[in-house]
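Dig into what follows:

_____
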Amino acid sequence: MLGLAKRSFWKLLTAVGLSSLVLAACGNNNASSTTSNKQDLNWMSSASISTLDPSKAVDSISDQTVYNAYWGLLTLNGGNKVAPGVATSYKVSNGGKTYTFYLRHSKWSNGDPVTAQDFVYGIRRSADPKTASQSAYYLDHIQNYDQVKNQKLPVSALGVKAEGDYKLVINLSSPQNYFKNLVTLPVFYPQNESVVKKYGSTYGTSSAKSVYNGPFKVTGWTGSNDGWTLTKNNQYWNAKTVKVRNIKYNVIKNPSTGLNQYEAGKLDELQLNGKQQVQHFKNSNQLKLRNTDSVYYIALNYQKVPALKNINIRKALSLAIDRNQLTKDVLGDGSYPAKGIVPKGLASYQGKDFTDWSNNKSATASNLTTAKRLWKLGLSQTHTKQLNLQLLNDDTPTGKAVNEFIQSQLTKLPGLKVSDLNLPHPTKVSRSINNQFQIAVSLWSPSVTDPTSPLNVKTSSNSLNFGKWSNAQYDELMSKATGSDAANEAKRWQDMVKANDIMLSQQAIIPLYQQVQPEVIKSNIHGVKYYPNGPTWDLSGVYVK
């Protein structure tokens, strides 16, 4: 899923700025929450929500909020495990092609019952081409999905049906061994048809124009403001287990502001930025170094910049970037160079991590001498004397710092000028989805613990294939991995390894780093569930003690 670059520093703070940061951090960092009402917490967000529409939530901020406000058929339970959600149980039959879910009696936040038909409607709406869901490809194994997507069959032909109010049946075109993990995603969430139709095109554009069936409902988001609240949903089927009343999200873009507020007790949670803040909390039990499955990379727009179709140009750009300097000096938060779009630790086979099975070192190496040689060759082959590129990223401190660093690295190539374009996160996401960029720092956080999640993003027809790189052999291998070879683990693994090798050897993307997110949480707050993939934070069990 899409996300933000978590904030840090690159250009070292000026003496004045550094002094103010250190002074701000000199409070008692082991203090407990000073929230006056223990049922109300203050949380940090590095950017605002883009949407509350489950069919359209693709960025990490929206996805996390939606995850805590909705309840799917099943929920995450760490790794590739799942736990009951609205479905109390399920069974698999027909050779792995039929999933039958048995639903509990539960309600929407407006009091309406949540029924199997709500899931049918939500899944159909996500699959409907008119909705333009960027995550609809997760539904590709559902029977008749391709025909629905290509408008050869009506959406009612999709292989999902309700048998009564509390029994849902989903038929697949072929077995998919991680389908149980997919149903935890927003594109599979129930949607209240009457509410969706009431608000039409404005559905999900503010907290008031949505209805929720999860542990929280969203309040206070107008669609443009930098703050919202997760408020306990008293209609939630297990509301008695939700201990906090409100979790107020505060969008904070200035690192020293966030630190000041945390030290003053105005924030109960803070995502740290850079070496200075991490070092300040290094001996505190509040510090959590969150390993993530998030990989940052540079997407290259082959349609907007014809020169990027040249492989030597692409390789030169990648070789010019020193990823060790980026992670150690710019980020300084434990993040490390990425080996590709598939994160380390996501999946393994026969005891060997996927990144070790498939590791094209030249695609993530740094060698300025070789970069200049390939650059000169690429310019000659494209009959280009100089090239101007605009680098798109978020307007967060990390987004700006990363852009400044990459700019300084790439402009070492003779005849290349790079300008930075840092925009608010929702705008950056919109431009990326609509291919309105030249090169862009992008993020992929796999929603399931399987290499197909990030690898499918670069198939030709994927709506999240920013830049529209296309390779027929790559598409064929991924089609096999998710189709004819899906039931044969050895074959599908080799399909994915070969596909990844093609993508890296062609420098389809420029991998940057795999994120480690340093976070501090007041010591009297417990019950936060953190997932390296998916929505990251599950706050349904949070309590203050």
Remarks:
- The two ends are 34 Å apart (CA to CA).
- The first helix runs from residue 15 to 24.
- Confidence is low (pLDDT under 50) at residues 1-36.
- The CA atoms of residues 297 and 442 lie 5 Å apart.
